Each structure stands twice: as C-alpha cells, then as structure tokens.
Amino acid sequence: MTNADFEKIVETSDEWIVTRTGIKERRIANGMASSDMAVEAAKKALEMAGCANDEIGIIIVGTVTPDYRLPSTACIVQEKMGLPNAVALDVTAACTGFITGMSLAAPLVENGQYHRALVIGVEKLSAFTDYTDRNTCVLFGDAAGAAVLAPDSNGSGLISTYLRSDGSYRKLLWAEVGGTVEPYSPDFAYDGRDKIYMNGADVFKVAVKEMCNAALKVIENAGLQPSDVSLIVPHQANIRIIEAIAKRLKLGMDRVFVNIEKYGNTSAASIPLALDEANRAGKIKPGDYVLTVAFGGGLIWGANLLRW
Predict the structure, then answer these.
(1) Do 3-153 and 158-307 agree at the fold level?
(2) Pick from 97, 140, 239, 290: most CB atoms within 10 A?
C-alpha cells in the first residue's frame, strides 16, 4: 500500500509522509492472520538453522495483534507447525516484542532447560489501524520475522541485553477500548478508540532519549564502545529517530540498516525483518557486533547486542 494510495483516502501527501517518517510503502496481509505470517517466517528460520521440528523446546511470540484474546498466538503456531515438544507463550511488548522474546529465551537455552528456542515477532497492524486517522494510518504495516536460538560455545549470540518500562506513558500509545477496563458493549459506537492511538510528538521525544540510552547501556554492559558496533538494526518507526540514534552513538548511517521505506512500522516484526534482510544482503560478517534497539507501547524500550 503506497503513499499514493493514502492520498486517496485521507488528507495527506507522499512528500508529507516521506519527509516526516521516511515511509514510502507498506505491506497489508489481506486474508492472513498473525499466526499465518508467523508460521511462514518460522518455517524459513527452521530451514535456515537446519533445525528439526522436535528440537524446538519453547516458542515465544511477540505481538500486540494476536489471532484471539485467548489462547496465545504461540499456541496456534505450535499446532499449525507441529512442534510436539514446545511450550508456547506470547509476549505483549509492542515494538519491543522481538527484543524481549530474545532476552527471555536466550538464558533458557544457555542453561540447558531447552535445546532450541523459536522467537517470533509478528504483527497484523492493519487490523487495528484507524484508516480515518491521517496521523497514524500511514505509519503501519504487516509483517513477521523469526529466529532460532541454539547453544554456542564460540562466544557468538546474545551477549548483552537491556530492558526498561514506564507505564505512566501508556496513554501516549495505546488502544483504549477492548480490555477489561472498557470492554466492548452491544452499543459500542466504533469511534476509533478500539484502534491504535498515538501522540506522535510526545512518543518521539521519549523514543529518541530512551532508545539512545538503551543502546549505550547495552554496549557498556558488554564492555565495548559504540565504535565496536558493526551494524545497528533499529526498530523501523521513524527515519528521524533512527538518524538521532546514529548521531548519539557517533556512527555514520552507513552502519545503520534501514528498510522503513518499504514496510513502515511493523512493530514486533520490525527488527527480525530488518535483521534478516541485512544478513541476506551480506551486511553482517561472522564476528560482527550487531546492535538491535527498539521502543514500543507501554512504554517499553530496550536493546540487545549480538555477536554474529
């Protein structure tokens, strides 16, 4: 769905969208549920890893757009893929969902509780987007990405992680109606409060500050310097936020992977989608330090430092 498509449904323009966000187009998963996208990504990840279905001991799905309120989307993925030995659970951490899932799964693999872990970030944000709200509808797209975590004795993998939250910011980015505070009622007017609301200006301020802090903290915790980072793979929410992070870390944009122009903000799917594209494009070499950093509704933010 291109910016030209949005010019036909809301008062906006390609120039306005690109200048403020960096987005030119996004994908809409017509006829697919979140679990369908998650399964497609997971199959590719298992194939890449040479991992058999029965080796997966835990599935963690980061999503705020589940198939159902009950059960977890991870349980649906487990059944659809036929992963007989896997416990399955969802993580509700919005755009930080994949980073959070990785942070939770890695120590479980490292301590031997599970032989392999499957971490998925998936969002069908088109199902929760208000296409009459010109400030938010141009931002979001649908996607899924997945990774297999396995033990490693060569110093590779997730070497440092940092997560923080502040629930006092929750009303800056939320869907007000549909939970237990304000459940749907027979006379619900569908006035947009069940869709994504975002105070973009205030979220931008928090995101720049806290994503930069998380990036610096996770690098410091690993005993490294920003100059040691070979590639930053940030959450793809806004090109100006991405540029601010690079500037704060004193790294050129040549060390930042950006694909926001093609997909928009895909929330929990954003980082695995970008990480996979960066890898397939030859942007990452064995031994490289790769920084992933994100923020999302909650608000929750964090970073992972990977050694490829």
Answers:
(1) yes
(2) 97
Could you read off the pLDDT of 167-223 as tens digits, one per residue?
A: 999 999 999 999 999 999 888 888 889 999 999 899 999 999 999 999 999 999 999
304 catalytic per annotation: no
The residue type found at 26 is R
**Domain residues of the chain, as ranges?**
3-153, 158-307
**C-alpha separations of 56 from 139, 235, 264 in Å:** 34, 26, 31
- Active-site annotation holder among 3, 238, 265, 304: 265
DSSP annotation of 180 reads S
pTM of the model: 0.96
Name the residue among 58, 198, 179 with its Cα closest to residue 125.
Answer: 198
Strand, coil or helix: 103: helix
Is residue 107 within 8 A of residue 139, CB to CB? The reply is no
Catalytic residue among 95, 137, 238, 304: 95
Our answer to whether residue 115 is catalytic in this structure is no
| 180's tokens | 């237990």
Give the pLDDT confidence of 81-105 residue by residue, as tens digits: 999 999 999 999 999 999 999 999 9
Please state which of the four CATH numbers 3.30.590.20, 3.30.230.10, 3.40.47.10, 3.30.70.1450 is assigned to the domain occupying 3-153.
Answer: 3.40.47.10
Domain 158-307, what fold?
Answer: Peroxisomal Thiolase; Chain A, domain 1 (3.40.47)
CA 261 to chain centre: 16
Q: Is 235 a catalytic residue?
A: yes
